[in-house]
Design goal:
mainly beta; 15-stranded mixed sheet; about 35% strand; disordered N terminus
């Protein structure tokens, strides 16, 4: 298979500090850059600006790299001060349950680990931030979801039985990487309009009700295990859609456009409602399983390919809706 606003803390809060990530510097104190290395969107090399008084008012402290470091172990409401780069840790069952906001931050790293951590309010990363990395771990962490509009990078992990379940994940910017693991994580789905979307739903019913919707330039969507993405995958990326569905009933349907659409469906009744490819240049569709891809595959591209088709009803009947180059083979790639 191809595979500086101040924080207001509500309730009883307990704050502490921890070190952020250091970076290599030269003799003048400037960050070392490899001239031959590709530019990574949302590089958090720093050093960043941190005003001690403002950061302290937000129950944090400035570290040597210019990060405002905030740590909470009880029901706190945390907000990164405007124009600051924050390293926020919410550790414990109800840590930061009233929410974490980076709406006015320059950049954020947010780690919520606890069964109800960061649960009651959607985590927000504003459009003026360069990057936002969010980890929601255990149980219903970040239950209300994540809304990331960072310029360069959104990197989101929802790893809990109901993590990010109710609000799902929405992301924009240059690149969004979202991974939903375990149970019904991201059950309300993922919506990505970043230039590059890399989205994975890998839980027994992750992204189940909302599925995946992506646009931008390139989109890679991967749905694995059980009924993940049961509501389907809709990809309207301008250039390339790359969709993999490999679970007993993953991806109720696939609709894809752009220039190229590559789809791999395998196992059980994955893609059971079919594949509708509206790409202009290439549709490359692989259906491996006797009941995979249901009874309908359609293609509007100038070149249409179906591979490894075990479901002859889907793969041989009316695949091509116009007169392109159209062929089927038994090669599983």
């Amino acid at each position: 298979m191809r595979a500086a606003v101040f924080l207001v803390a509500f309730g009883a809060c307990s704050f502490g500090t921890r070190l952020g990530n250091g970076v290599p510097v030269d003799a003048d104190g400037d960050a070392v850059v490899d001239a031959d290395a590709p530019v990574t969107p949302g590089s958090d090399a720093g050093p960043f600006f941190c005003d001690p008084a403002t950061c302290t008012a937000a129950n944090g402290s400035c570290n040597s790299g210019g990060w405002c470091v905030i740590s909470c172990t009880s029901n706190c409401s945390v907000a990164c001060p405007a124009g600051h780069t924050c390293d926020i840790t919410c550790m414990g069952g109800s840590a930061c349950m009233d929410g974490v906001s980076c709406a006015n931050a320059a950049g954020c790293k947010i780690h919520c680990e606890g069964s109800s951590s960061c649960a009651n309010q959607k985590i927000v990363c504003g459009a003026q931030s360069k990057f936002c990395d969010v980890v929601c771990k255990n149980g219903g962490a970040c239950l209300a979801g994540v809304d990331c509009r960072s310029i360069d990078r959104c990197d989101i992990t929802c790893d809990g039985s109901t993590a990010c379940q109710n609000g799902g994940v929405m992301c924009t910017g240059k690149k969004c990487t979202t991974t939903c693991l375990t149970g019904t994580s991201c059950n309300a789905g993922i919506q990505c309009s970043a230039d590059v979307c890399d989205l994975t739903c890998n839980g027994s019913a992750s992204c189940n009700n909302g599925g995946i919707q992506c646009s931008g330039f390139d989109c890679k969507a991967t749905c694995l295990t059980g009924s993940s993405c049961a509501a389907g995958v809709t990809c309207n990326a301008a250039n390339k859609c790359d969709v993999t569905c490999n679970g007993t009933s993953t991806c109720g349907s696939i609709v894809c456009g752009g220039k190229q659409c590559l789809t791999d469906c395998a196992t059980g009744t994955s893609c059971m409602n079919g594949v509708d490819c509206n790409a202009t240049d290439l549709c490359d569709i692989e259906c491996s399983g006797a009941t995979v891809c249901g009874t309908n595959i359609s293609c509007d591209a100038t070149t249409c390919k179906t591979h490894c088709c075990s479901n002859t009803l889907a793969c041989t009947a009316n695949v091509c809706s116009q007169d392109p180059v159209c062929f089927e083979d038994a090669v599983c790639d």
